Amino acid sequence: MDNRKFLPIIIIIVIAAVVIIALSSSIFYTIDAGERAVIFYKFGGGLDKENVLTPGFGMKAPWNDLYVYEVREKSIEEKMDVLDKNGLSINVDVTLRFHPIYDQIGYLHENFGVGYVNTLVIPEVRSAVRQVMGRFSAEEIYSTKRGEVEAMIKTETEKSLNENNCEMRALLIRSINLPEQIRLAIENKLKQEQEALAYQFRLDKEKSEAERKRIAAEGEAVANKIINNSLTPELLKMRGIEATLELAKSPNSKVVVVGSGKDGMPLILGNN
Fold first, then answer.
1. What is the edge-to-edge ordering of all strands in the sheet holding 65-70?
2. Which of 45, 154, 216, 249 is the most exposed place for a label (fewest CB within 10 A)?
3. CA 111 to CA 164: how far, in whole Å?
4. Gene3D superfamilies, alphabetically (predicted)?
């Protein structure tokens, strides 16, 4: 049997195998857990934004480009200097947790590319922090309205990221640092305000106690007046007779001394 006629076929198979091996990294791909990908078709269709590739093994034409995105939650920390509404410089330390919206990776890639963290996320966070803090004074940001400032920054950042195919998981303002002189002035003012409130509380408490005593005294005076008006000579005489009768019921021997005059009351003396 002449094997020479199979030689061209063998050569073609070997060449094809070499080509496939050489281009394997361009043909075969694996998307890991926590990743998504999109394909750019160079010779038709362009970027396929709708068909987001999920984790697994796949094949593509070697001339098409695969863009893989990690969709696990990311965290960035930003330290920045911003100005309050009076132009005072404030140093802010912010932490943001976020991830791309899984089924919108194609749109994220089209608008911002794989470097979206630097071109989208960080600028939006910085912009929201600057805009919101520019509406408040340093004292409000540092003390009375810190919670409101944080809530507004979260709302504006979340809205902006969602509109650009990212989901914000959390935004934390870890610290707000003012110039030392300004910070001490604000803390001293807050301390004085607390002392004034405490003093006012004591005054109000003392006024309430004085009012209570006044009302109690007035009530007692009215009661005494009523009692005095009701103690007529006839009533007192009747009460004395009732007390004498009660004493007379005692089994002990007694000596009764009858008082003189029309208002004289009997006096009972025991033999002991």
1. 46-47, 35-41, 65-70
2. 249
3. 8
4. Band 7 domain
d(CA 73, CA 265) in angstroms, rounded, equals 101
> Distance (Å, rounded) from C-alpha 61 to C-alpha 46?
13
Query: Could you say which of 1.20.120.140, 1.10.760.10, 3.30.70.20, 3.30.479.30 is the CATH number of the domain covering 74-178?
Result: 3.30.479.30
Beta carbons of 40 and 62 less than 8 angstroms apart? no
Name beta bridge partners: 74. Answer: 98
The residue with tokens 């960080």 is 122
Count of positions (residues) in the chain: 272
Q: Are 243 and 226 in contact (CB under 8 A)?
A: no
Listed residue (49, 56, 53, 66) closest to 104, CA to CA: 49
Q: Is 41:10 a contact under the CB 8 Å cutoff? A: no
The DSSP secondary-structure symbol of 114 reads T
Nearest alpha-carbon partner for 236 in 248, 224, 247, 244: 244
Is 99 in contact with 105 (CB distance < 8 Å)?
no
In 3D space, the residue among 74, 66, 70 whose CA is nearest the CA of residue 95 turns out to be: 74
Q: What is the pLDDT of residues 228-246, one digit of tens each?
A: 666 666 666 666 666 666 6
Q: What is the pLDDT of residues 81-122, one digit of tens each?
A: 888 888 888 888 999 999 999 999 999 999 999 899 999 999
pLDDT-wise least confident of 74-78, 220-224, 238-242, 254-258 = 254-258
80: pLDDT strictly greater than 70: yes
Tokens of 187: 């803390």
Q: Where are the domains of the chain?
A: 3-70, 74-178, 180-230, 234-270
Contact between 100 and 164 under an 8 Å Cβ cutoff? The reply is no
